[in-house]
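FORM 7B - TANDEM STRUCTURE REPORT

SECTION 1: FIRST PROTEIN
SEQUENCE AND TOKENS:
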Amino acid sequence: MTSDVTGRRAAFLATLTTATARATEDGSALTLLLLDVDDFGAVGARLGPARANTLLDGLARRLAAAARAEDVVCRTGGDGLAAVLPGAGRAEAESLFARLQAGLRSDPPEDGPVGVSAGIATARADERPAELLARASEALRTAKEAGKGTAKATP
């Protein structure tokens, strides 16, 4: 796997399916980090669709640059990003999120500051990709409710 940014939702789901099967097969850890741009509707309205999309691509590249070589960063559609972290647990996902946040603070995107929130879920034994994704999505929802720029993990 690679930290290059892959395509959109279909590529993300294929990556997650492959990584989940591999983790189940060899008993290794797998963690999913889902990210969402805070107040993206307002950001998109201010920038327009083309520049908002460019901003998202830039965020995906930043996330990939902060990730490990074996991690896979994907755009998931809309304003969503994901990092599939094979062999990693919650601590690695939290560290990746912290590195992204630090980079956004120290070097804001050209179009202005932007915040992200994150949901983290570590795969359980024999968990299906859809179940892992649902738990990460729920953690992301909880993070957004807790306040912008936060990350929450499922138990």
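SECTION 2: SECOND PROTEIN
SEQUENCE AND TOKENS:
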Amino acid sequence: MTRRGLGSLLCVGLPLIAASLSDPSPAAVFVTQTTGTLIVDWTIQGRADLADCRLANAEAVQIHVVGSNGADAGTYEQSCAAFETSIVLEPGTYSATALLVDVARVPRSTTVTIIPFSLFGNDVIRTPIDFPATSFF
């Protein structure tokens, strides 16, 4: 290639290379999930049996979550018969309690404490709880 041909190639090639390097569109986009999930499994007297929900006259489980700073993170409810619920929360450290309630949302049990937990985002924590016979009114 002559010196003149090489110069022409550089004049055309360099702007193309520069344009491709300055292109702001990434080849791959990484999406990070910023929430975590608490899964609460419950039993009544050690069993996950619909008959125990009926016997206790419990329609639902209410789970109240509080952030480590004392901020209310919400009260979540699930049918007693589900024996499991998932709660999506922002990263942080939390404490929680659970309570069985009847159809009118009147408590049917004492409060069960859920062990404090921390979510860091894109994680799942599963925690089991039990409503023993002594927790019913």
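SECTION 3: OBSERVATIONS ON SECOND PROTEIN
The chain has two helices and seven strands.
Strands lie at 36-44, 60-67, 72-79, 84-89, 92-101, 112-119, 124-131.

SECTION 4: SIGNATURE
Preparer initials: ____
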